Task: structure prediction
Amino acid sequence: MNKILVANRAEIALRVMRTAKKMGIATVAVYSEADANMPFVQFADESYCIGPASSSLSYLLGDKIIEVAKQCGADAIHPGYGFLSENAAFSQACADAGITFIGPTAYSINTMGSKIAAKQAAKKYGVPMVPGTDKPIADIAEAQEIAKQTGFPLLIKASAGGGGKGMRVVNHESELEEQLLMAKSEALNSFKDDSVFIEKYVASPKHIEIQLLADTHGNCVYLFERECSIQRRHQKLIEEAPSSCLTEDIRKAMGESAVSVARSCDYHGAGTVEFLVDEELHFYFLEMNTRLQVEHCVSEMISGVDLVEQQILVARGEKLAFSQDDLKINGHAIELRICAEDPLNNFMPDTGSLDVYRRPVGEGIRIDDGYEEGMPIPIYYDPMIGKLVAWGQNRTEAIARLSNAIDHFRINGIETTLPFGKWAIQQEAFVKGQFDTGFIPKYYKPELLEEYSKDEIELAAAIGTMIYKEKTMAPKALPSLKSNWKLRSQLR
Ligand code: MV4
Result:
């Protein structure tokens, strides 16, 4: 493997290219017209524009990207996350074109892409499941029969859904028929597949996922868990490794179950198995993500393994160079996603430019980002600017380092999730590690962030005074007081 084309953009494109360069492999960027000045385009050895800003006319054009790979002599394609990363047809098209897809086969993607097929495959390997069905619900009579076993509330989920899409809670028998019809029609509209299944509703679960690595020789290891319960609208905001609630026994049981899920679909490469964990620490298989995930960094930091490097080695056909017993958890890592979203306004995507963008530095701090100061955040794509990750010897040290790094991150020109992160990691429930997927709805109110912007308000007032003095005093008296600072309100 001599040249890798990265079929993605921004932070993950950079992340993949860094490892490729480290391994002495040449890199190719493909980019949209909106991304011409992005750091990943500059960083690549070669870059090709593949179309206009809209993803469907650029980053989602599999055939065009394969054509570019052929033309420039790339022998592999890394899809990153999102876009084409879990597209079975694209994995197959790469294989058919003689290009190595750095990811799983179409078979693995298809099996795990259908939640019903995934449950059927995993069940054969004895993976724990939420009580319910692993067959499409044919009619209301069948739904009523299943409801007798699960009780209420129950969940109707779309087989082609995932990540929270196409889920409906049914609280009472009387709503079942209506909800079933709605769920089916919604699934048909969204996914062109109206198959749905039913599960008992697990109240206030924790979301814990297991990072896996599998080679093409039948070896598979787990790189421990990530605690991802701090989410909003199925969008993760904070992830950490390890989880503070697992015992060694449960960690091992979950790891081994995750390996079974991988075996059930003949998996190779990096992948993640998601579990729901209830209050008694019972865990249940949810779904498998057949890609490198945004939050992979925390697993890298506690395991010392470069997951992209391993993806590349596996794609080359090499055997994993380590076994489960070689892997140990070292310290603790916490990641905050820095998104161009306004936590004071329902986390709505915020538009604008990074007028000021200064990264903190410090021991144990890793920043994976995709933009530089002065750049606009395009509206066409995911609003994530980057990720701030802190590692410490233990959870307390990781929290302290993350907190300090948030304080020293300067972003002006756009609202971000930084103040939310600062607030979240100071909450008693977070510090104690006693939280579940209900953390944000239970504790978060925008008003609570006000004290986190206080410093900024004071700073703005001080700058305002300075500008006022500059304007009113004799100009010659204060030649050095010219300020480049602008008030936030003027920037918006
Ligand atoms: C559930 C559940 C409760 N019971 N399944 C949401 C995303 C998708 N991967 C599955 N999800 C859930 N499935 C049963 N049987 C609750 C959720 C859920 C959730 C899961 C993980 C993280 C955040 C969540 C927020 C709301 C609901």
Q: What stands out?
A: Residues 474-492 have pLDDT under 50 and may be disordered. Residues 130, 155, 162-164, 199-202, 205, 207, 231, 234, 274, 276, 286-287, 437 surround MV4 (CB under 6 Å).
